[in-house]
Amino acid sequence: MGRFTMAAKHHQTIAEMYETEAVDYEKAVTHYEQAADYFRGEESNSSANKCLLKVAQYAAQLENYEKAIQIYQEVASSALESSLLKYSAKEYLFRAALCHLCVDVLNAQHALERYVQMYPAFQDSREYKLLKTLIEHIEEQNLDGFTEAVKDYDSISRLDQWYTTILLRIKKQLNESPDLR
Question: Which residue ranges make up each domain of the chain?
Fold first, then answer.
């Protein structure tokens, strides 16, 4: 009877309040997840995906990378099913791959291969090329190359706060990891 949509909107509003006023991202994530479930129950997939993307964004910020990766991949694959939304899949795959890089390089390489199979046009994107370059620099322990690659990308496509935070975490790991060569 449409009551789930009302409940979902209330949960979304509560999540937004936790997000902006209380700045409690864990509680915001809980309410966004609840809203996404209710929206899905009403077949409102775009609203559900919007909430799930917020969950993934905060999960990554809270260093729960596995959850973020799973959500970004799920939303990307649903976007690929729609001819209108398939171009946004590139961003979700890029975000998922960055989360993989926060975990480890080998997982990121395997994920990139899977993403190219899912969405062949991803291989021609600037995001894919940046990821490949970052992986090379991480393997070579080349901190300056890593920084330069990010700066080059940022000079053309501005990186928002989320990307900056995740890339700084990857760089910090690179800085702290011992040189095994």
Answer: 1-62, 86-181
